[in-house]
Design goal:
Layout (H helix, E strand, L loop, with lengths): L18 H5 L28 H14 L20 H5 L5 E5 L5 H9 L4 E6 L2 H14 L4 E5 L2 H8 L5 E7 L19 H8 E11 L2 H12 L4 E3 L16 H8 L5 E7 L4
Parallel strand pairs: 1-2, 1-4, 2-3, 4-5
Antiparallel strand pairs: 5-7, 6-7
């Protein structure tokens, strides 16, 4: 089972729908072998009324930008047999950069529009953010960008082919700062194997956060991951100059929090 090709059948759905309605869009309906996930997700998905512009984004722009993903147990899940074919989707062979939790899309749209020789994939679950990303990408003429509405660990571990990504970016993920919620953090023990599956040998994992506690956890997890080695010296990496200033970063700085960057290199597979 594979994701749609760039010009093939199975285009992205034009608008949101209920799980039952969406199932009708797949031959035979979406498979539902289970009714719960094995691991907690790093987000709480909230629904709300879409603006007219957001509705237009899904109706007019989703066919090009939004990948049509077969689901498993939830609307943001990925069926374990689903695979993206990057060359077919983007229509070429090029380095693929993946941003996890792309939010409103400021960073990835800026990168995609200024780096046309590379391909970009935004992973996000919030529909308002997806709509804004598509609208801004369309205005910027960023045709080398695709979006996927799905749980990031499933995208990294199975939907992307092994070693498909040259870089994975994780900028300002939800810190889940309350102690009882830290189990929901995206970068937790075991994440090295998840990200390492998607990144090519020598590729980079770039992270940034304004929460010191989470930065320390990220560093501890990735220092202990056999898939990665540090690509920086000292305590923290230099600020990635390819990361545009976003509202999340401005908010952290305004509150007096330090921004901490980390960069890890994928070690060669055995």
């Amino acid at each position: 089972m594979s994701g749609r090709s760039a010009r093939g059948a199975g285009r992205a759905r034009p608008s949101a729908g209920s799980g039952a309605d969406a199932a009708a869009g797949y031959p035979g309906g979406m498979p539902e072998p289970r009714t719960f996930r094995d691991e907690p997700v790093s987000f709480v998905r909230r629904s709300g009324r879409m603006s007219e512009a957001q509705e237009r984004a899904f109706a007019e722009l989703a066919p090009h930008y939004l990948l049509d993903v077969p689901r498993d147990v939830a609307w943001t899940s990925v069926h374990p047999e689903a695979r993206l074919d990057p060359a077919a989707e983007y229509g070429r062979e090029a380095p693929l950069i993946v941003e996890v939790g792309s939010g409103q899309g400021h960073a990835i749209v800026a990168a995609a529009s200024s780096r046309p020789a590379e391909d970009f994939l935004a992973v996000e679950v919030f529909r308002a953010g997806l709509a804004r990303t598509m609208l801004d990408a369309d205005r910027a003429g960023a045709r080398n960008l695709r979006l996927v509405e799905a749980n990031a660990p499933e995208v990294l571990s199975s939907y992307l082919p092994e070693a498909a990504a040259s870089e994975v970016w994780i900028f300002f993920p939800d810190p889940w700062h309350k102690k009882r919620h830290t189990k929901r953090r995206l970068v937790r023990p075991g994440f090295g194997a998840t990200a390492g599956a998607a990144i090519r040998d020598g590729g980079l994992l770039r992270l940034a956060t304004d929460w010191e506690d989470y930065a320390l956890q990220m560093r501890e997890v990735l220092d202990g991951a056999p898939e990665f080695e540090r690509a920086f010296e000292g305590e923290w990496a230099e600020r990635f100059d390819g990361r545009v200033m976003t509202a999340f970063e401005r908010k952290g700085l305004a509150k007096g929090r330090d921004i901490r960057d980390l960069t890890y290199r994928r070690v060669p597979r055995a």
